[in-house]
Amino acid sequence: MSDVKAIEDAVRSLPPAELAVFRRWFAEFDNAAWDAQLEDDLSRGKLETLVAEAQADYASGPRKQP
């Protein structure tokens, strides 16, 4: 059995209270991983084009609605 399958089975078998604790922990873990990836991408300049586009959009002011 793969590690992922074993984890899936373990999560499925958690009682509701423990599942709630796990979900909170996993949300924090996932958010921290996302933040680390974003920081890494920013430091490597991978988002420069997107940042420049956002700054240009902001500098152009509000858009008129059709």
What do you see in this structure?
By secondary structure, the protein is mostly helical. It has one domain (3-59). 76% of the residues lie in helices and 0% in strands. It is built from three helices and no strands. It has helices at 3-12, 16-43, 48-59. The longest helix has 28 residues, at 16-43.
Main sheet record: none
Q: Care to count the β-strands?
A: 0
Structural class: mainly alpha
Instruction: Give the helix tally.
Output: 3
Features:
mainly alpha; 66 residues
Put the structure in a nutshell.
By secondary structure, the chain is mainly alpha-helical. It contains 3 helices and no strands.
What is the fold's blueprint, element by element?
Layout: H1 3-12, H2 16-43, H3 48-59
